[in-house]
């Protein structure tokens, strides 16, 4: 779902052709993900069919035609729906969460808090599970090292979420 959201956000910023969309997503969030043509173009086709974007052919002399995608009002509504759709299943996926946080300026404080709370709840359950596995008899030093590292990552994200939540109540 996050890829659909990122594609629509790029088109909402300004009309773009496929390569520009891909380039902008990777510039913003490339360290988290890679966008390939097999994901991008079928999604653009689907959005065109569903009326979320319009496609205009840009004729180029001596080069293949280029299609430029432009957001529709239905596409803007779809963006709002996708940002706010943050299920318990989504909360388990860091990239789904990170994309939502990167778009917090587009949603209400109440929805921001709901998303943070849902992710925090999932991370607390994950932390408990990892700590339980650490207490069990392990398969060796390196397994335990990976689990301890995982604990520190989860604790770091929980602290970050607490800071974000605090800034929402302070601001």
TrEMBL record:
Location of the Transcription regulator PadR N-terminal domain: 7-80
User: Where would I find the Transcription regulator PadR C-terminal domain in this sequence?
Assistant: 96-168
Alphabetized Gene3D superfamilies for the sequence:
Winged helix-like DNA-binding domain superfamily/Winged helix DNA-binding domain
Q: Name one Pfam family in it.
A: PadR
Q: Which InterPro entries match?
A: Tscrpt_reg_PadR_C, Tscrpt_reg_PadR_N, WH-like_DNA-bd_sf, WH_DNA-bd_sf
Q: What name goes with this protein?
A: PadR family transcriptional regulator
Q: Name the species this protein comes from.
A: Paenibacillus lautus
